[in-house]
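Late entry, evening session. Most of the bench is empty. Finally got around to the prediction I had been postponing all week. Sequence below, unchanged from the version circulated by S.P.
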Amino acid sequence: MPGRAGGAGRPLLSLRRYHGDTMAATTTLKLPEKLKARIARIAAQTGRSAHSVMLEALEREVARAERMREFVREAIASDAAIEAGAAVYRAEDVHAWVEVLAKGARPARPRPWRR
């Protein structure tokens, strides 16, 4: 619960979006004993519940999987754009341009290698 303190006076991880009216039905996970022990150890070391450790891990993994799917979608779209004739730049030219930008200058954009 938000506002409650964890072990050693530390606040619990705030996961408000999963509490209250937004909490869905209970889901049961069957965990291997070694994983369950690892989760319990982390929970005890951080003053959190095993539930909050698992919830945070699931949220992080789902977000990572969503980012990966978006990355692949963008890569496929970029590949299709290149096949359709979009400009292509040499990596060396782009890297040199970025290095000059990083130094605060305003260089001209690199010229396309291929259109």
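Two things to note before I forget:
DSSP finds three helices and no strands in the chain.
The mean pLDDT is 86.
Will write this up properly tomorrow.
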